[in-house]
Amino acid sequence: MRATKIRWKRAERPNWALPFFAGLLAGIVLVYFNTEVFLSESGFLSRVSLERLGRVDVNESIFFLYVLRKRIGMLWLTAILSTTFAGIVTTYLFVLWAGVCGGVVAAVSVMRYGIKGFLLLAGGMMPHFLLYIPAFLLVADWCFQICTRLYYPVRDYTEVHTGSVSQRAGILGNFLLFHGVVIIGAILESYVNPTLMSEILRLF
User: Fold this and answer.
1) pLDDT digits (tens, 9 = 90+) for 106-136
2) Cα separations (Å) of 137 from 15, 35, 92, 105?
3) pTM here?
């Protein structure tokens, strides 16, 4: 029984850095071996696309609704998948995919623009990723715990059922908290980041 409890405690907080950095490395390798695709003159983050982006007049309200729909949609998708038998696997794949996307963006930015690429990368992430990153980690933990409680519960019956009402209230409260963080992040991404990016794009 003691060994079971120890395994449960360790399983409550997986090391998300492992799948994330594995995905990050995979994204970098993907760009390195497909430079003709990612680094073409009209490809991802090319000077042509940056010039077009710099000339875009952003409607913050419409952009906010677009960003919010994307972010909330991802939140709901991961939440729904966490209630399935494969919820743990999909959560790991979700973190892995985030790493791949980050690796591709970072590799393309640096390979195209060198030191300026780091500035472009940082500008694209600020300030909304200051909220998205911790929210991302908390959502991953939340999804892992949901799937574990549904399909892989600890064998101690009293631990599972004692305080089940408060546990459900905590789960719901966390889910609502994630929505609040995502909404604030979407506001920053829609109303603050475009101004910051327009200044950074002047350097390109």
Assistant:
1) 999 999 999 999 999 999 999 999 999 999 9
2) 10, 31, 11, 20
3) 0.81
State pLDDT tens for residues 138-194: 899 999 988 988 888 763 333 444 445 556 667 778 888 899 999 999 999 999 999
* Token output for 37: 């695709």
Q: Please state, in angstroms and rounded to a whole number, the distance separating the CA atoms of residues 142 and 33.
A: 35
Residue with tokens 């892992």: 144
